[in-house]
């Protein structure tokens, strides 16, 4: 194949975008004779030479990508146009035509020195998670398996598109397939995917790793770790929203990535509250998360910090016994709630009564 060739009378090759020993990807333009796309439409053609493949895996990937694009109806995924077979000059070639998304990949922009604000990264991650929420809503769900900055295109209007579904797999087929084949990009593929068993939660890890790269400029494999978990907060300050969502999705154990991507997108857009204090590092409080959200969770964190200072001063007053309690109403909490501060020999305990729950209880944190 060469520039200027016209395939099936419908697709004129414009620029070769990539190649492998048995496949090529071309930018192309629909001709006047094209029945599947408007004349002049910019397209991407993937061409697979059957006679040059060492095995049938390439054919399998090709067929899965074509089937996935046919099934997907989302503005952030390239539109399926056509699939065909060419048999000429003893060559047997499969072709897949799809919409070409205008813009540049996030990887290319980062390589050229572009930097994004934290608010922009929150918005982009929310958009990416919305795309993944759609893919997971399909039946069977679709797993992309190669979410990374190279496969995310930012259009001129700022919106994102997820491209290159060559590694796509449906969750049902993958769950029952005994395979050690690894598809994905190192640093963005979680542990279970590296072992050949990706799930819908694997794409969530990859999306979070992509956000880490944009935030820090550091490849996810090179990030500091807390245990086995990448820790972008060791390099940059994170907003409570990002800290919470990334903390959920960077878990090495996929069973802990339980936050639905649609909910995570709403949290990042400030349309849902953060369900608790997002990070001990940010809040200065030890303990488990409290019900609530960013409006309540962030203000609660700040309130507890202020209360700790107040308590330290008050509990040092002469005449107070170690076991005495100091009850201080907090304007940032519901009107029927109060914070109880108790002094112990080595710390101050903060007790926050639960509100709005069917089961009463307390969340406790300690200031040492």
Give a quick set of tags describing it.
single chain, 368 residues, alpha+beta, six-stranded antiparallel beta sheet, 10 helices, 30% helix, disordered C terminus
Beta strand count: 17
Task: State the low-pLDDT regions, or none.
Answer: 171-182, 277-303, 314-337, 354-368
Structural class, by secondary structure, is alpha+beta
Rg measurement, Å: 26 Å
Spatial strand sequence of the major β-sheet: 1-2-3-4-6-5
Secondary structure: elements and pairs:
Elements: E1 6-7, E2 11-20, E3 23-30, E4 42-49, H1 57-71, E5 80-88, E6 91-99, E7 104-105, H2 106-111, H3 118-137, E8 142-143, E9 152-154, E10 160-162, E11 169-170, H4 171-175, H5 191-194, H6 200-216, E12 225-226, E13 229-230, H7 240-249, H8 261-268, H9 280-283, H10 294-315, E14 325-328, E15 339-343, E16 348-353, E17 362-367
Antiparallel strand pairs: 1-2, 2-3, 3-4, 4-6, 5-6, 7-9, 8-11, 9-10, 12-13, 14-15, 15-16, 16-17
Helix pairs in contact: 3-6, 3-8
Describe the structure.
With 368 residues, the protein is an alpha+beta fold. Helix content is 30%, strand content 23%. It contains ten helices and 17 strands. It is elongated and about 80 Å long.
Summarize the structure.
The protein is of the alpha+beta class and 368 residues long. 30% of the residues lie in helices and 23% in strands.
């Amino acid at each position: 194949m060469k520039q200027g060739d016209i395939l099936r009378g419908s697709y004129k090759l414009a620029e070769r975008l990539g190649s492998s020993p048995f496949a090529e990807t071309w930018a192309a333009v629909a001709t006047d004779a094209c029945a599947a796309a408007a004349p002049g439409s910019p397209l991407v053609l993937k061409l697979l030479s059957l006679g040059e493949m060492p095995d049938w895996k390439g054919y399998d990937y090709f067929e899965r990508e074509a089937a996935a694009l046919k099934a997907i109806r989302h503005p952030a995924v390239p539109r399926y146009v056509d699939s065909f077979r060419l048999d000429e000059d003893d060559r047997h070639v499969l072709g897949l035509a799809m919409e070409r998304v205008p813009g540049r990949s996030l990887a290319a922009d980062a390589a050229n020195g572009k930097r994004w604000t934290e608010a922009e990264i929150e918005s982009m991650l929310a958009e990416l998670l919305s795309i993944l929420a759609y893919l997971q809503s399909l039946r069977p769900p679709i797993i992309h398996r190669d979410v990374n900055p190279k496969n995310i295109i930012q259009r001129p209007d700022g919106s994102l598109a997820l491209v290159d579904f060559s590694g796509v797999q449906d969750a049902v087929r993958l769950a029952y397939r005994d395979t050690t084949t690894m598809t994905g990009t190192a640093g963005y593929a979680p542990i279970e995917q590296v072992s050949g068993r990706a799930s819908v939660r694997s794409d969530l890890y990859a999306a979070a790793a992509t956000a880490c790269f944009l935030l820090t400029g550091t490849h996810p494999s090179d990030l500091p770790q807390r245990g086995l978990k990448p820790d972008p907060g060791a390099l940059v300050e994170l907003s409570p929203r990002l800290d919470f969502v990334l903390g959920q999705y960077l878990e090495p154990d996929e069973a802990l990535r339980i936050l639905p991507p649609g909910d995570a997108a709403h949290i990042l857009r400030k349309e849902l509250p953060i369900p608790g204090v997002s990070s001990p590092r940010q809040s200065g409080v030890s303990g488990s998360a409290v019900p609530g959200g960013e409006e309540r969770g962030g203000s609660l964190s700040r309130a507890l910090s202020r209360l700790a200072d107040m308590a330290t001063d008050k509990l040092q007053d002469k005449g107070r016994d170690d076991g005495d309690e100091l009850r201080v109403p907090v304007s940032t909490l519901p009107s029927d709630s109060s914070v109880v501060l108790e002094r112990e020999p080595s710390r101050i305990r903060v007790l926050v009564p639960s509100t709005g729950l069917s089961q009463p209880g307390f969340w406790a944190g300690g200031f040492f």
